[in-house]
Automatic annotation (TrEMBL):
<feature type="domain" description="RNase H type-1">
    <location>
        <begin position="46"/>
        <end position="127"/>
    </location>
</feature>
<dbReference type="InterPro" id="IPR002156">
    <property type="entry name" value="RNaseH_domain"/>
</dbReference>
<dbReference type="InterPro" id="IPR012337">
    <property type="entry name" value="RNaseH-like_sf"/>
</dbReference>
<dbReference type="Pfam" id="PF13456">
    <property type="entry name" value="RVT_3"/>
</dbReference>
<protein>
    <recommendedName>
        <fullName>RNase H type-1 domain-containing protein</fullName>
    </recommendedName>
</protein>
<dbReference type="InterPro" id="IPR036397">
    <property type="entry name" value="RNaseH_sf"/>
</dbReference>
Amino acid sequence: MARGEVLKTISFHRPIYPPSKWMPLEVEDLKFNVDGAVSGSFGLAAELLAIKEAGILFKSLKWARSHRLLVECDSNNIVHWIKNAHLSPASFRGIINSILDTFEGLVWQVFLISREQNSLADNLAKKGISITRGIVEFLLD
């Protein structure tokens, strides 16, 4: 390392998963379970974009002002970065700030879930890679 060069590190936090038991939502809650899948190595970016899209969709619903949004994600780093945007890597800070702007004024929370609990969202995300038309159109077929 050259003199005066700063060593940059990204800290990874050990995930603490909630119990695996399914719990029904409260009447005033809506939940999005997100997972990003892409061809290549942009998984974290895809998952962040999925969270932003969930926020855009939620904001367009009539329940956005009367309900709380719960976002479930299986990436410990993403959950940590959204809750602590100032600690996120510079390469993701723009999209994270954009997510926070999207959710401005809404009641929402992001939760970490295990990959096993997120398997359905993961499978749907992987299927979505091969879809050449809109996902909503695909799900309505």
